[in-house]
Amino acid sequence: MNIIKATNKAIRLLPGIIIAILLWILWFLVPQLTTGGTAMVVSVFGGLACSFLILIWWVFFSRAGLVDRLLAVAVMLVALVIFNRFTHDSIKTGMSGLMYFIYAVPILSISFVIWAAVSRNMSKMLKRLTMILTIVFACGFWTLLRSEGITGNASAIFEWRWAKTNEEKLLSQSEEVLTKRGNLKETDANWPGFRGPNRDNKVRGVKIETDWTNSPPVELWRKPIGPGCSSFAVLGSVFYTQEQRGDDEVVSCYNLETGEAIWKHSDKARFWDSHAGAGPRSTPYIQDSLLYTLGATGILNVLNLYNGKLIWSKNAAEDIQDTIPGWGYTSSPVVIDSVIIVAVSGTLVAYDAYSGELKWRGPDGGENYSSPHFITIGGVKQVLMMSENAVNSFNPANGEILWQRKWGAGAIVQPAMTDEGDILISEGYKKGIHRIHVSKNSGNWIIKDLWMTSKIRPDFNDFVVHKGFLYGFEGLSLTCIDLNNGERKWKAGRYGGQVLILTDQDLLLVLSEKGELVLLEANPEKLTELAKFQAIEGKTWNHHVLVNDIILVRNTQEMAAFRLTLANN
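RESULT FIELD:
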């Protein structure tokens, strides 16, 4: 092999074509056929590795002329560097600053092999001209796009750079008129905050008709909403959520039956990242007559439930001198007795719920997007918090660490309790789920590992537990796990999104990442889909809520309410 030696032989295309086909399979086809962290790693690194092999083929084994070989490499390097500087910020900063290269390099490599095949019989000058144009187009095309974030399977969503965002369309409309309404009288929250009363996504005491052909969900209302990953807190005839409106981070109260806005509270704050977009990430929490909210930049507000009046406000990030993580502050508050607890990234911070006095702070837990989780073990109240390398249990009154279970990978999604009182903790896509038993004996906390499974590795979507089985997502695929041993019963249905469990009927209600509402049996033997319809449009990461016969859904662009037919007993 001699890179300097010129040749008049025809270009050797077959190796380049084979590598390009392998690149297409690894980079494009694998994510379509399978899901989860492994598929993402195979796609990204497989695509880049095959692209490097195409470069090696061209320089050393293609039998192209020396000038053509060196010219192609030089133009590729210059084009990638220059055009990366002119890409939209959403692409430039996406995927830890690598989004442009993750997408542009494989497309460039495949395009280059196609050019090499098509240009075989061209004249020398035309061949070089078309080569340069191919490289420039493959690298420069991405400057015409912006990223609208990524899917749960880590695939980017692209739009034309000049197209208006959904938020811009919303802001161009006339200002929303607030509904004149007398004093709200509800006192008991139907759904007080993130994932319901026990943060377990369990809907109790509700039975619905499962034949949606004859008894379809009835749309009550639909309206645009500002971006944000917030879910809902529901109090009687009203609900609360968080959204972004331009430079204002907004807490909103809406009528459950009509969708009309009742009151809004705004703070001058805006957070944006290339994966989830703009807006607050957490969900309000209802306690007594107060509403507790945490913004994406760390603003902790306590508002009057009925009129939105500010009671007190703190910047939790500033209180502990924390730097905003790349995805913003995502923790949803929880109130235990008279203490409000929030997670500032992976660090717990507690305040007096009524005065705002700082009560305690936990140790640095690294960067995380989990929320504090209230449980009781052996009659002892405690708050679980996932951190980068452990799950910690805190005394909610004073922040004392009761017990700790360490491991290597970061735990992110919410923990869950089994019917026997054991705890399920996910270490994410690298490891899987642990089942641990925690007890107290003679004043000492004892932690016993029961099993660990890699058959489901949730790192983004929360899961539910019902009658000895876990239902959650492995990548985009809904999966059932036997809690006796951690073995997988089935894996099917590429839904993504979030899942509720209707405990009285053994039903799963999924809001897919595509905005579909899907009704399924909670059956450990097989996946049985009972009904499905398109509820909202666009990428949907927000948790849905079912209160009595009304289901609330939203994403970063719209929200809607549907009335389900209740089943006759």
